[in-house]
Design brief:
The chain is built from 15 helices and 16 strands. With 400 residues, the protein is α/β, with parallel strands linked by helices. It has 2 domains: 3-33 and 267-393, Beta Barrel (Lyase, Ornithine Decarboxylase, Chain A, domain 1); 52-263, Alanine racemase (TIM Barrel), CATH 3.20.20. The strands form 2 sheets. Strands 1, 10, 11, 12, 13, 14, 15 and 16 form an 8-stranded mixed beta sheet that branches. Strands 2-3-4-5-6-7-8-9 form an 8-stranded parallel β-barrel, surrounded by 5 helices. The chain binds pyridoxal-5'-phosphate. Residues 58, 60-61, 79, 101, 191, 194, 225-227, 258-262 line the site of pyridoxal-5'-phosphate.
Length: 400
């Protein structure tokens, strides 16, 4: 999503890989870096091994299922935000756990959800009442997402604990549950973090214990959600491991983590070509064949400036980067380059495996970038290619 440091974003690149990226004939394209995916998963696996917790891939951040066989060597399964991601996890990580959380389930999806999920987490007492029995009868474990009402980030669109949040059940609302429903619960889920270190988790756990401590001992598992930036260079893994072991021992529960970002952090690039260079009022803009609005929506939503390979901030030539769409604000960011850029040059944007191709769109009729995977030796494999037919199929009736 954004806050990775610039050097870490390109730590996976070596000369072979760079040559390979520059030799692909058609831009733009995303590239998944297999070596970094493996490295991230190794870090997560170690946490699981040291603490006895289980780690799931949150697919909403990264659903590059061609990498699932590799990831399943290290992870315990996938987390889904609804039916489609649950189906994807079931299909592409066979034999592994599938967990789902949605703020509300549709009736017509629910039977299918019970067929492909091991854990189903509900957002509210009403959803638990409506679907709990069906889920149990189908052999699923069920949980309730709680809201510990403890904000450990500054209230932006990624803070599920902001006032009036629709996510999670507060203690006040939990108290309205009947005994039968409370007894049905196998576990508790919370998700309150975003790109955060383990000190934020520590603080959150204090709030969880304060508000819900009396019921935790009745649970089989507690899911700590995502937002743990575990694979970032400055992440305090030791503190995370202590949080997990202390908590699971105290309450006799299995702890689950479901990081998205941490699984694929810095494990992707988006390669673009400069199509034109324009200027007004002393500002020079490079028009690239990628659009932040279409191909890296978090650049505008977070917002943040993605790192560019070779651009370290110590240059003196100022450029703004913008997409080819007609949206005035379709701007990637402002950068200082050391060297002048020419039309036709290629730029490599970093940390583009997460919240990128699982979130892109064809606004303005923008083509979707192809997706490749790259190996340590620089060998590239194209996973998918998009064209006009994909654009048109989403917009209306094809056969008349
Ligand atoms: C977004 C989300 C995650 C993953 O979050 P990351 O910030 O990508 O680690 C996990 N669980 C739930 C319920 C989420 O909404």
């Amino acid at each position: 999503m954004g806050q990775s440091d610039k050097r870490a974003a390109f730590a996976g690149l070596n000369e072979n890989k760079i040559d390979a990226l520059l030799s692909v004939s058609e831009t733009p394209f995303y590239v998944i870096d297999k070596e970094i995916i493996r490295r991230n998963c190794e870090v997560l696996y170690k946490v699981a091994k040291n603490t006895g917790c289980k780690v799931l891939l949150a697919q909403k951040a990264f659903s590059g299922f061609d990498l699932y066989p590799l990831m399943s060597e290290y992870l315990d399964g996938t987390e889904a935000s609804g039916l489609y991601e649950a189906m994807l996890g079931r299909e592409e990580m066979p034999g592994k756990e599938v967990h789902v959380f949605s703020a509300a389930y549709r009736e017509r999806d629910f039977t299918e959800i019970t067929k492909c999920c091991d854990h189903i987490v509900f957002n509210s007492p009403a959803q638990l009442k409506k679907y709990g029995k069906t889920a149990k009868a189908a052999g699923c474990q069920i949980g309730l997402r709680i809201n510990p009402e403890c904000s450990v980030q500054d209230g932006g669109i990624y803070d599920p604990c902001s006032e009036g949040s629709r996510l999670g059940t507060t203690r006040e609302n939990f108290n309205k549950l009947g005994c039968a429903e409370k007894e049905m619960l196998d576990g508790i889920h919370f998700h309150t973090l975003c790109e955060q270190n383990s000190d934020a988790l520590e603080k959150t756990l204090e709030a969880v214990e304060l508000k819900f401590g009396d019921i935790l001992g009745n649970m089989q598992w507690v899911n700590f959600g995502g937002g743990h930036h575990i694979t970032r260079p400055d992440y305090d893994v030791e503190k995370l491991e202590k949080c997990i072991t202390d908590f699971s021992e105290k309450y006799g529960v299995t702890v689950y983590l479901e990081p998205g970002e941490a699984c694929a952090l810095n494990a992707g690039y988006l390669v673009t070509e400069v199509l034109d260079i324009v200027g007004s009022s002393g500002k020079t803009t490079l028009i690239t064949d990628v659009s932040p609005a279409c191909h890296m929506p978090d650049v505008l939503e977070m917002p943040y400036n993605p790192p560019i390979f070779g651009v370290t901030g110590d240059g003196c030539i100022k450029y703004r980067l913008g997409g080819p769409t007609c949206l005035a604000g379709d701007v990637t960011g402002e950068y200082t380059f050391r060297e002048e850029v020419k039309t036709g040059d290629r730029l490599i944007l970093g940390d583009m495996a997460i919240y990128s191709f699982c979130k892109n769109n064809t606004f303005n009729g923008m083509p979707l970038p192809d997706i490749y995977v790259i190996d340590e030796d620089g060998s590239l494999d194209r996973l998918t290619r998009f064209g006009y037919a994909d654009f048109k199929a989403r917009l209306g009736k094809l056969s008349k």
